[in-house]
Protein backbone atom coordinates (compact mmCIF):
# COMPACT_ATOMS: atom_id res chain seq x y z
CA UNK A 1 0.00 0.00 0.00
CA UNK A 2 1.32 3.44 -0.99
CA UNK A 3 0.88 6.18 1.58
CA UNK A 4 1.89 9.86 1.61
CA UNK A 5 4.29 10.44 4.49
CA UNK A 6 4.47 13.45 6.78
CA UNK A 7 7.94 14.95 7.10
CA UNK A 8 7.07 16.38 10.53
CA UNK A 9 6.16 13.03 12.08
CA UNK A 10 7.88 10.47 9.83
CA UNK A 11 11.24 12.13 9.25
CA UNK A 12 13.23 9.82 11.54
CA UNK A 13 12.06 6.67 9.73
CA UNK A 14 12.38 8.38 6.32
CA UNK A 15 15.99 9.39 6.88
CA UNK A 16 16.89 6.15 8.66
CA UNK A 17 16.16 4.37 5.37
CA UNK A 18 18.11 6.98 3.38
CA UNK A 19 21.14 6.66 5.65
CA UNK A 20 21.10 2.87 5.35
CA UNK A 21 20.54 2.77 1.58
CA UNK A 22 23.02 5.50 0.64
CA UNK A 23 25.56 4.64 3.36
CA UNK A 24 25.98 7.88 5.23
CA UNK A 25 25.41 9.04 8.81
CA UNK A 26 23.60 12.16 10.02
CA UNK A 27 24.27 13.85 13.33
CA UNK A 28 21.25 15.30 15.13
CA UNK A 29 22.08 18.72 13.70
CA UNK A 30 22.43 17.33 10.16
CA UNK A 31 19.19 15.36 10.53
CA UNK A 32 17.24 18.50 11.39
CA UNK A 33 18.90 20.32 8.50
CA UNK A 34 17.81 17.52 6.15
CA UNK A 35 14.30 17.74 7.55
CA UNK A 36 14.23 21.49 6.87
CA UNK A 37 15.47 20.95 3.30
CA UNK A 38 12.67 18.43 2.70
CA UNK A 39 9.91 20.98 3.31
CA UNK A 40 8.97 20.97 -0.37
CA UNK A 41 9.22 17.19 -0.86
CA UNK A 42 6.20 14.99 -1.44
CA UNK A 43 7.22 11.67 0.09
CA UNK A 44 5.44 8.38 -0.54
CA UNK A 45 6.10 5.16 1.30
CA UNK A 46 5.25 1.70 0.07
CA UNK A 47 4.13 0.31 3.40
CA UNK A 48 4.23 -2.98 5.20
CA UNK A 49 1.62 -2.21 7.84
CA UNK A 50 2.88 0.89 9.62
CA UNK A 51 6.46 0.30 8.51
CA UNK A 52 8.09 2.04 5.51
CA UNK A 53 9.35 -0.75 3.27
CA UNK A 54 10.26 1.50 0.32
CA UNK A 55 10.06 5.22 -0.36
CA UNK A 56 10.32 7.89 -3.04
CA UNK A 57 10.63 11.68 -2.78
CA UNK A 58 9.08 13.95 -5.42
CA UNK A 59 10.34 17.54 -5.47
CA UNK A 60 8.14 20.04 -7.37
CA UNK A 61 10.58 22.30 -9.22
CA UNK A 62 10.86 24.28 -12.46
CA UNK A 63 13.46 24.39 -15.21
CA UNK A 64 14.36 26.70 -18.07
CA UNK A 65 13.88 25.75 -21.70
CA UNK A 66 15.39 28.89 -23.12
CA UNK A 67 13.33 31.78 -21.74
CA UNK A 68 10.42 29.51 -20.81
CA UNK A 69 9.88 28.07 -17.36
CA UNK A 70 8.58 24.49 -17.36
CA UNK A 71 7.29 22.61 -14.31
CA UNK A 72 9.48 19.63 -13.45
CA UNK A 73 9.16 16.81 -10.93
CA UNK A 74 12.45 15.76 -9.37
CA UNK A 75 12.66 12.13 -8.24
CA UNK A 76 14.98 11.69 -5.29
CA UNK A 77 15.99 9.41 -2.40
CA UNK A 78 14.39 6.26 -3.82
CA UNK A 79 15.24 3.47 -1.39
CA UNK A 80 14.05 0.06 -0.17
CA UNK A 81 15.00 -1.99 2.87
CA UNK A 82 16.89 -5.15 1.73
CA UNK A 83 14.21 -7.61 2.85
CA UNK A 84 11.67 -5.96 0.50
CA UNK A 85 13.89 -5.53 -2.57
CA UNK A 86 13.03 -7.02 -5.97
CA UNK A 87 9.38 -7.14 -5.04
CA UNK A 88 8.26 -4.39 -7.46
CA UNK A 89 7.80 -1.73 -4.77
CA UNK A 90 9.89 0.93 -6.54
CA UNK A 91 8.08 0.20 -9.80
CA UNK A 92 4.77 0.90 -8.03
CA UNK A 93 6.13 4.13 -6.53
CA UNK A 94 7.41 5.35 -9.91
CA UNK A 95 4.04 4.67 -11.53
CA UNK A 96 2.30 6.50 -8.70
CA UNK A 97 4.67 9.45 -9.06
CA UNK A 98 4.17 9.66 -12.85
CA UNK A 99 0.38 9.83 -12.47
CA UNK A 100 0.77 12.51 -9.80
CA UNK A 101 3.15 14.58 -11.94
CA UNK A 102 0.89 14.44 -14.98
CA UNK A 103 -2.16 15.43 -12.92
CA UNK A 104 -0.24 18.34 -11.38
CA UNK A 105 1.31 19.83 -14.52
CA UNK A 106 4.87 18.61 -13.99
CA UNK A 107 5.39 17.71 -17.61
CA UNK A 108 8.98 16.50 -17.31
CA UNK A 109 10.87 14.64 -14.59
CA UNK A 110 14.57 14.52 -13.66
CA UNK A 111 16.52 12.09 -11.48
CA UNK A 112 20.11 11.13 -10.67
CA UNK A 113 20.27 7.36 -11.19
CA UNK A 114 21.99 4.70 -9.16
CA UNK A 115 21.67 2.60 -12.34
CA UNK A 116 20.97 3.99 -15.81
CA UNK A 117 19.64 0.67 -17.11
CA UNK A 118 17.19 0.40 -14.21
CA UNK A 119 15.53 3.75 -14.88
CA UNK A 120 15.62 3.33 -18.66
CA UNK A 121 13.13 0.50 -18.16
CA UNK A 122 10.70 3.08 -16.78
CA UNK A 123 11.17 5.71 -19.48
CA UNK A 124 13.99 7.92 -18.20
CA UNK A 125 17.03 8.60 -20.37
CA UNK A 126 20.43 10.21 -19.86
CA UNK A 127 20.10 13.82 -20.98
CA UNK A 128 22.79 15.58 -18.96
CA UNK A 129 26.52 14.94 -18.87
CA UNK A 130 29.05 16.52 -16.54
CA UNK A 131 32.33 17.86 -17.89
CA UNK A 132 34.98 17.93 -15.18
CA UNK A 133 38.23 19.85 -15.44
CA UNK A 134 41.38 19.42 -13.37
CA UNK A 135 43.62 22.27 -14.50
CA UNK A 136 47.15 23.06 -13.30
CA UNK A 137 46.75 26.68 -12.23
CA UNK A 138 49.77 27.82 -14.24
CA UNK A 139 47.86 26.90 -17.43
CA UNK A 140 45.41 29.68 -16.60
CA UNK A 141 48.15 32.30 -16.27
CA UNK A 142 47.80 34.44 -19.37
CA UNK A 143 46.57 37.87 -20.39
CA UNK A 144 42.80 37.47 -20.26
CA UNK A 145 42.01 41.03 -21.45
CA UNK A 146 39.47 41.27 -18.65
CA UNK A 147 37.84 44.67 -18.23
CA UNK A 148 36.71 44.64 -14.64
CA UNK A 149 37.39 43.18 -11.22
CA UNK A 150 36.14 40.69 -8.60
CA UNK A 151 34.96 41.50 -5.09
CA UNK A 152 34.37 38.82 -2.45
CA UNK A 153 31.01 39.41 -0.80
CA UNK A 154 28.36 37.69 1.31
CA UNK A 155 25.65 35.93 -0.67
CA UNK A 156 23.11 38.39 -2.09
CA UNK A 157 20.18 36.60 -3.69
CA UNK A 158 19.06 39.40 -6.02
CA UNK A 159 22.53 39.98 -7.49
CA UNK A 160 23.65 36.36 -7.77
CA UNK A 161 20.35 34.95 -8.98
CA UNK A 162 19.98 37.60 -11.69
CA UNK A 163 23.38 36.56 -13.10
CA UNK A 164 22.53 32.87 -12.77
CA UNK A 165 19.12 33.32 -14.41
CA UNK A 166 20.56 35.06 -17.47
CA UNK A 167 23.20 32.33 -17.80
CA UNK A 168 20.75 29.46 -17.17
CA UNK A 169 18.43 30.66 -19.94
CA UNK A 170 21.14 29.93 -22.50
CA UNK A 171 20.81 26.19 -21.74
CA UNK A 172 18.06 23.57 -21.67
CA UNK A 173 17.11 22.09 -18.32
CA UNK A 174 18.87 24.38 -15.85
CA UNK A 175 16.97 24.68 -12.59
CA UNK A 176 14.94 27.71 -11.56
CA UNK A 177 16.46 28.48 -8.15
CA UNK A 178 14.35 30.26 -5.55
CA UNK A 179 16.00 31.94 -2.56
CA UNK A 180 15.42 28.98 -0.28
CA UNK A 181 17.01 26.60 -2.77
CA UNK A 182 20.08 28.84 -2.97
CA UNK A 183 20.46 28.94 0.80
CA UNK A 184 19.76 25.27 1.45
CA UNK A 185 21.20 23.55 -1.60
CA UNK A 186 23.73 25.79 -3.37
CA UNK A 187 25.58 28.02 -0.91
CA UNK A 188 28.17 26.04 1.06
CA UNK A 189 29.13 27.03 4.61
CA UNK A 190 32.89 27.30 4.15
CA UNK A 191 32.94 28.75 0.65
CA UNK A 192 33.51 32.27 -0.62
CA UNK A 193 31.54 34.18 -3.26
CA UNK A 194 33.32 36.43 -5.72
CA UNK A 195 31.24 38.78 -7.86
CA UNK A 196 32.71 40.00 -11.16
CA UNK A 197 32.00 43.62 -12.14
CA UNK A 198 32.70 45.36 -15.43
CA UNK A 199 34.18 48.84 -15.59
CA UNK A 200 30.66 50.32 -15.35
CA UNK A 201 30.37 48.51 -11.98
CA UNK A 202 27.67 46.20 -13.33
CA UNK A 203 27.76 42.57 -12.04
CA UNK A 204 28.60 40.27 -14.96
CA UNK A 205 29.53 37.02 -13.24
CA UNK A 206 30.00 35.21 -9.95
CA UNK A 207 31.97 32.29 -8.58
CA UNK A 208 31.46 30.23 -5.42
CA UNK A 209 34.74 28.65 -4.40
CA UNK A 210 37.05 27.45 -1.68
CA UNK A 211 40.77 26.73 -1.55
CA UNK A 212 42.01 23.77 0.47
CA UNK A 213 45.07 21.54 0.30
CA UNK A 214 46.44 23.51 -2.68
CA UNK A 215 43.31 22.98 -4.77
CA UNK A 216 40.98 25.75 -5.95
CA UNK A 217 37.50 24.18 -5.94
CA UNK A 218 34.85 25.92 -8.03
CA UNK A 219 31.46 24.95 -6.58
CA UNK A 220 29.24 27.13 -8.77
CA UNK A 221 29.65 29.91 -11.31
CA UNK A 222 27.81 31.85 -14.00
CA UNK A 223 28.50 34.82 -16.23
CA UNK A 224 26.57 37.06 -18.59
CA UNK A 225 29.29 37.88 -21.14
CA UNK A 226 32.67 36.73 -22.38
CA UNK A 227 34.19 39.59 -20.44
CA UNK A 228 32.53 38.27 -17.26
CA UNK A 229 34.07 34.83 -17.88
CA UNK A 230 37.49 36.38 -18.51
CA UNK A 231 37.29 38.34 -15.24
CA UNK A 232 36.51 35.12 -13.35
CA UNK A 233 39.31 33.17 -15.06
CA UNK A 234 41.80 35.91 -14.25
CA UNK A 235 40.59 35.86 -10.65
CA UNK A 236 41.15 32.09 -10.44
CA UNK A 237 44.61 32.39 -12.00
CA UNK A 238 45.59 34.99 -9.40
CA UNK A 239 45.39 32.28 -6.71
CA UNK A 240 48.57 30.67 -8.07
CA UNK A 241 50.40 31.29 -4.78
CA UNK A 242 47.72 29.29 -2.90
CA UNK A 243 46.69 26.56 -5.33
CA UNK A 244 48.47 24.19 -7.66
CA UNK A 245 45.35 23.08 -9.55
CA UNK A 246 41.74 24.02 -10.21
CA UNK A 247 38.82 21.62 -10.13
CA UNK A 248 35.54 22.65 -11.71
CA UNK A 249 32.47 21.23 -13.44
CA UNK A 250 31.34 23.04 -16.59
CA UNK A 251 28.69 22.65 -19.31
CA UNK A 252 29.52 19.90 -21.78
CA UNK A 253 29.92 22.45 -24.60
CA UNK A 254 32.38 24.63 -22.64
CA UNK A 255 35.29 25.79 -24.80
CA UNK A 256 37.91 26.75 -22.22
CA UNK A 257 40.51 24.47 -23.90
CA UNK A 258 40.38 26.80 -26.92
CA UNK A 259 41.08 29.84 -24.74
CA UNK A 260 44.23 28.66 -22.97
CA UNK A 261 47.69 28.32 -24.49
CA UNK A 262 48.10 24.69 -23.39
CA UNK A 263 44.82 22.73 -23.43
CA UNK A 264 46.31 19.39 -22.43
CA UNK A 265 44.83 19.09 -18.97
CA UNK A 266 42.47 16.49 -17.49
CA UNK A 267 38.97 16.69 -19.00
CA UNK A 268 36.39 14.03 -18.16
CA UNK A 269 32.81 13.71 -19.40
CA UNK A 270 30.52 11.57 -17.28
CA UNK A 271 26.78 10.77 -17.51
CA UNK A 272 24.94 12.70 -14.81
CA UNK A 273 21.15 13.20 -14.72
CA UNK A 274 18.30 11.46 -16.53
CA UNK A 275 14.99 12.95 -17.69
CA UNK A 276 11.66 11.75 -19.05
CA UNK A 277 8.65 13.57 -20.41
CA UNK A 278 5.64 12.73 -18.24
CA UNK A 279 2.90 14.29 -20.41
CA UNK A 280 3.80 14.30 -24.11
CA UNK A 281 0.78 16.28 -25.28
CA UNK A 282 1.26 19.11 -22.80
CA UNK A 283 5.03 19.12 -23.27
CA UNK A 284 4.67 19.54 -27.03
CA UNK A 285 2.17 22.37 -26.45
CA UNK A 286 4.61 24.22 -24.19
CA UNK A 287 7.86 23.49 -26.04
CA UNK A 288 9.54 26.54 -27.64
CA UNK A 289 9.92 25.19 -31.18
CA UNK A 290 12.31 27.18 -33.38
CA UNK A 291 10.40 26.77 -36.65
CA UNK A 292 7.02 25.69 -37.95
CA UNK A 293 5.98 22.18 -36.91
CA UNK A 294 3.25 22.00 -39.55
CA UNK A 295 3.05 18.50 -41.00
CA UNK A 296 5.17 16.73 -38.39
CA UNK A 297 3.69 13.49 -37.03
CA UNK A 298 5.18 11.73 -34.01
CA UNK A 299 4.28 8.17 -33.06
CA UNK A 300 5.45 7.91 -29.44
CA UNK A 301 5.76 4.63 -27.52
CA UNK A 302 5.82 4.74 -23.72
CA UNK A 303 5.69 1.18 -22.43
CA UNK A 304 5.70 2.05 -18.72
CA UNK A 305 3.26 4.96 -18.83
CA UNK A 306 0.94 4.13 -21.74
CA UNK A 307 -1.07 7.35 -21.36
CA UNK A 308 1.65 8.81 -23.62
CA UNK A 309 1.55 6.03 -26.25
CA UNK A 310 -0.25 8.01 -28.93
CA UNK A 311 0.15 9.53 -32.37
CA UNK A 312 0.67 13.31 -32.27
CA UNK A 313 -0.05 15.31 -35.41
CA UNK A 314 1.47 18.78 -35.19
CA UNK A 315 0.41 21.88 -37.07
CA UNK A 316 1.53 25.48 -36.63
CA UNK A 317 -1.20 26.16 -34.08
CA UNK A 318 -2.50 22.83 -32.86
CA UNK A 319 -1.68 19.26 -31.83
CA UNK A 320 -4.10 16.46 -32.67
CA UNK A 321 -3.79 13.37 -30.47
CA UNK A 322 -4.86 10.03 -32.00
CA UNK A 323 -4.57 6.37 -30.96
CA UNK A 324 -1.11 5.02 -31.70
CA UNK A 325 -0.83 4.14 -35.41
CA UNK A 326 1.47 1.43 -36.73
CA UNK A 327 2.88 1.54 -40.27
CA UNK A 328 1.84 5.14 -40.98
CA UNK A 329 3.65 8.17 -42.29
CA UNK A 330 5.61 9.97 -39.60
CA UNK A 331 8.41 9.56 -37.09
CA UNK A 332 8.45 6.62 -34.66
CA UNK A 333 10.27 7.04 -31.35
CA UNK A 334 10.22 5.95 -27.73
CA UNK A 335 9.61 8.28 -24.80
CA UNK A 336 13.35 8.05 -24.01
CA UNK A 337 14.34 9.13 -27.52
CA UNK A 338 11.78 11.94 -27.59
CA UNK A 339 13.02 13.34 -24.27
CA UNK A 340 16.67 13.23 -25.33
CA UNK A 341 15.86 14.97 -28.61
CA UNK A 342 13.71 17.72 -27.14
CA UNK A 343 16.38 18.67 -24.58
CA UNK A 344 18.97 18.63 -27.41
CA UNK A 345 21.07 15.96 -25.76
CA UNK A 346 21.08 14.25 -29.16
CA UNK A 347 19.80 15.47 -32.53
CA UNK A 348 17.06 13.56 -34.43
CA UNK A 349 19.32 13.17 -37.47
CA UNK A 350 21.99 11.54 -35.31
CA UNK A 351 19.50 9.06 -33.85
CA UNK A 352 18.36 8.31 -37.41
CA UNK A 353 21.95 7.64 -38.53
CA UNK A 354 22.44 4.97 -35.85
CA UNK A 355 19.09 3.32 -36.56
CA UNK A 356 17.33 4.51 -33.39
CA UNK A 357 14.70 6.67 -35.10
CA UNK A 358 12.30 5.43 -37.75
CA UNK A 359 10.80 7.60 -40.48
CA UNK A 360 11.85 9.28 -43.70
CA UNK A 361 15.00 11.40 -43.65
CA UNK A 362 13.00 14.40 -44.91
CA UNK A 363 10.59 14.15 -41.97
CA UNK A 364 13.41 13.76 -39.47
CA UNK A 365 15.34 16.71 -40.92
CA UNK A 366 12.18 18.82 -40.63
CA UNK A 367 11.81 17.84 -36.97
CA UNK A 368 15.51 18.53 -36.40
CA UNK A 369 15.08 22.08 -37.70
CA UNK A 370 12.40 22.84 -35.10
CA UNK A 371 14.28 21.69 -31.98
CA UNK A 372 16.20 24.05 -29.71
CA UNK A 373 19.93 24.35 -30.41
CA UNK A 374 20.70 25.17 -26.77
CA UNK A 375 22.66 22.45 -25.00
CA UNK A 376 21.43 20.71 -21.83
CA UNK A 377 23.08 21.71 -18.54
CA UNK A 378 22.12 20.89 -14.96
CA UNK A 379 24.53 22.33 -12.37
CA UNK A 380 22.43 21.22 -9.38
CA UNK A 381 21.83 18.02 -7.44
CA UNK A 382 18.97 16.51 -5.48
From TrEMBL:
Q: Name one GO biological process term.
A: aminoglycoside antibiotic catabolic process
Which parts of the sequence belong to the N-acetyltransferase domain? 2-145
Under CDD domains, the record lists: NAT_SF (cd04301)
Q: Which GO terms describe its molecular function?
A: aminoglycoside N-acetyltransferase activity
Which keywords fit this entry according to its UniProt record? Transferase
Tell me the PROSITE patterns matching this sequence: GNAT
InterPro entries (alphabetical): Acetyltransf_17, Acetyltransferase_Eis, Acyl_CoA_acyltransferase, Eis_dom, GNAT_dom, SCP2_sterol-bd_dom_sf
> Is Transferase tagged as a keyword?
yes
Concerning Gene3D superfamilies, the annotation shows: 3.40.630.30, SCP2 sterol-binding domain
* Glycosyltransferase recorded as keyword: no
Q: What is this protein called?
A: Predicted acetyltransferase
